[in-house]
Amino acid sequence: xxxxxxxxxxxxxxxxxAVPIVVYVFRPxxxxxxxxxxxxxxxxxxxxxxxxxxxxxxxxxxxxHGHAGLPRGRKRVLYTxxxxxxxxxxxxxxxxxxxxxxxxxxxxFLGRLRETFPWFSF
Length: 122
Hints:
Blueprint: H1 3-25, H2 36-40, H3 48-54, E1 59-62, E2 75-80, E3 87-92, E4 98-104, H4 109-116
Antiparallel strand pairs: 1-2, 2-3, 3-4
């Protein structure tokens, strides 16, 4: 091989290594709010404050239509994020600790695109 070809081959290999590293470093931050990834971070025993921080503080009023079947002192709280249709419901006990959770994803075509490409705002 000539010197020119070695130089071209080396440049191509360096690009193959450098491009993924640059893309990884400059990727957008994880979206805040109610997403499947953030929902999966919620564990039983977490406080209401910790859950609010993970889900972007998008807690709405207590989810009052649905306490039937819950033990006394427990409450359901609905979390949503403006601009997204996914929702999470977390059940808290008397000490405001998470005891149960549920997630309803945005299964529309645009919802799946938002999850796949979070840096696009459509």
